[in-house]
């Protein structure tokens, strides 16, 4: 009886360890097939080579073999932090090479999960502002267009971060931020600060575009994960639609 209890404890500990790794990766922008591969490799290195996993953008299902019950984990929030994805990959690799134990892997995964975002919010806003100005020039805007695009793109990105925390409704933040960007671009041209409103708008909305989500959707489709690829593609399309609607509303009003 004691042996059965120890076996069950080991089984559930391994399942929880693999699920924790998968959760961190999926929440921080990893591709579906990468999450599944990491979980099965970790299970195999811990003595369960027949593990099975099924991952979608919102759900992880995992079991170590065909006879044990499947355990499910629901993903409610997703963001982008590729540093955490890289750290989980490193932990998985070290576990597979027997450089760390399961307990050490669990401790390190807990630290990765609890760690703050790789970059502070103020630095993200500054990076978004510089990105918007550079894209404005890249899309053949003048330096006089890049000048207003610098604060406009920063304010738009800051609005997305703030509204995501304030309102739980999906795509409302992107719609509102793009509307703000269009409004600021219109008035910057009207006041003579900028020259071409379309170039300012195009450059300023680029930090809002879901580039990573589109890339992951295509990679999941190419890897045969049709459900995940289509759902991520739909998510990216709705985000782009919200951005376009916000800009379109400004253009229709002014």
UniProtKB/TrEMBL annotation:
Write out the annotated subcellular location.
Cell membrane
Where the record annotates domain Threonine/serine exporter-like N-terminal, the positions are 16-253
For the keyword Metal-binding, the answer is: no
**Keyword match Nucleotidyltransferase:** no
Q: Which domain of life is it from?
A: Bacteria
**InterPro entries registered for this protein in UniProt:** ThrE-like_N, ThrE_Dicarb/AminoAcid_Exp
Q: Which residues cross the membrane?
A: 121-140, 171-189, 201-222, 234-253
How this chain sits in the membrane, per its record, is: Multi-pass membrane protein
Q: Which UniProt keywords apply?
A: Cell membrane, Membrane, Transmembrane, Transmembrane helix
- PANTHER family linked: SUCCINATE TRANSPORTER SUBUNIT YJJP-RELATED, UPF0442 PROTEIN YJJB-RELATED
Concerning its family, UniProt says: Belongs to the ThrE exporter (TC 2.A.79) family.
Q: What is this protein called in UniProt? A: Threonine/serine exporter-like N-terminal domain-containing protein
| Organism of this sequence | Paenibacillus odorifer
The root-end lineage is: Bacteria, Bacillati, Bacillota, Bacilli, Bacillales
